[in-house]
Design a protein that fits this description.
Elements: E1 4-9, H1 13-22, E2 28-34, H2 38-47, E3 52-54, H3 57-61, E4 68-71, H4 78-87, E5 91-95, H5 102-115, E6 119-122, H6 129-140, E7 146-154, H7 174-190, E8 196-203, E9 209-217, E10 223-229, E11 238-242, E12 245-249, E13 257-262, E14 267-271, H8 280-291, H9 302-319
Parallel strand pairs: 1-2, 1-4, 2-3, 4-5, 5-6, 7-10
Antiparallel strand pairs: 7-11, 8-9, 9-10, 11-12, 12-13, 13-14
Helix pairs in contact: 4-5, 5-9
Length: about 325
């Protein structure tokens, strides 16, 4: 296939960011969009030059002109929407979190395996140019042996209790919305499950975690101190500490720059600008996997999505936080 034909399932904010990023990818075609609202679908299609409009998600999943679908619905719908697309034989790039719990994740992986189609969690940060370079530096031992990771992601969200970040019916809360970024970064850096994991959270009036923090310890003595929140603004940076220096990543989940501070006092600064929203890099990787006939990504494999979800399940159990329907 000269071009990979994409379908976008839903027309919300993240779908728009994805579509704008995809307009910069020459070998990608925004083929179709699906929405429950015909007006929203038509407006979205016009804005992002999308050829086909579907007024049901089912019609999009069964569109023979679509090769892969980006699932951009709210968290609780990822499971059902992805299963529908996989059942129709479509490859899927599913927005993070891939599901709301490990059981759903297992079912999605099993369906992808059964249908022999590609599935990947859209952990877009991992594919940004700055993080590709950071991983290379770490593998090369640029700052020695990694001993610590410090990362936080908290923002001042709306006070409206019906907003998705506070609404338990939409699997709201800090961890699934933004805490997943520092947690996924820990997996990216250390490449294994922690041998120790503990957490704490403040559960707000709607029953979701408004703030949460996590301490992870690893077999080699390294550890990660991480936090997230939806009621206050935090620095939102990551600091990777090694025996020979540290790497500082401002606004780490969307960063376009990085600083290395060496133990001997030297400093290096590197800009890594990227086009548009940056969400296109994960899609470029997914398209390469499709061309190579892979069912899963070697960079964001099924096993990692499942390990990450099991860890978040464990933390929610500690807090007594269950979502409706679980």
């Amino acid at each position: 296939m000269e071009k990979i034909r994409w379908g976008i399932l839903a027309t919300g904010k993240i779908a728009g960011k994805f579509a704008s990023g995809m307009l910069t990818v020459p070998n990608a075609k925004l083929q179709a969009v699906g929405s429950r609202s015909e007006d929203k679908a038509k407006t979205f299609a016009e804005q992002y030059r999308i050829e086909t409009v579907h007024t049901t998600y089912e019609a999009l999943a069964n569109d023979p002109e679509v090769d892969i679908i980006y699932v951009a619905t709210p968290h609780p719908y990822h499971h059902a929407n992805t299963l529908m697309c996989l059942e129709a034989g479509k490859a899927v790039l599913c927005e993070k979190p891939i599901a709301i719990n490990a059981q759903q994740t297992v079912e999605m992986i099993e369906k992808a395996r059964e249908k022999n189609v590609f599935l990947m969690e859209a952990m877009w940060t991992r594919f940004l140019p700055v993080w590709v370079q950071i991983k290379t530096w770490l593998d090369e031992g640029r700052i020695g042996e990694i001993k610590q990771l410090q990362a936080d992601f908290a923002f001042k969200g709306p006070d409206d209790i019906n907003h998705r970040v506070l609404n338990p019916n939409l699997a709201g809360g800090a961890m699934l919305d933004v805490g997943i970024y520092p947690l996924a970064t820990a997996y990216h850096i250390f490449g294994e499950d922690p041998v120790h994991a503990s957490s704490t959270a403040h559960i707000g009036q709607t029953g979701v975690d408004e703030q949460s923090a996590y301490l992870l310890g690893y077999a080699n003595g390294a550890f990660a101190t991480l936090s997230s929140g939806v009621q206050v603004d935090s620095p939102r940076q990551a600091v990777i500490v090694g025996t020979e220096g540290k790497i500082v990543v401002p606004l780490f989940w969307k960063s376009s720059e990085v600083r290395i501070e060496y133990a001997d006092g030297r400093e290096e600064y590197y800009p890594f600008p990227y086009e548009s929203s940056g969400l296109q890099y994960q899609a470029i990787h997914a398209m390469q996997c499709l061309k190579e006939g892979k069912r899963e990504s070697p960079i964001m494999p099924w096993s990692e999505s499942l390990r990450l979800m099991r860890l978040m399940d464990r933390f929610r159990t500690e807090w007594g936080l269950k979502y409706p329907g679980e």
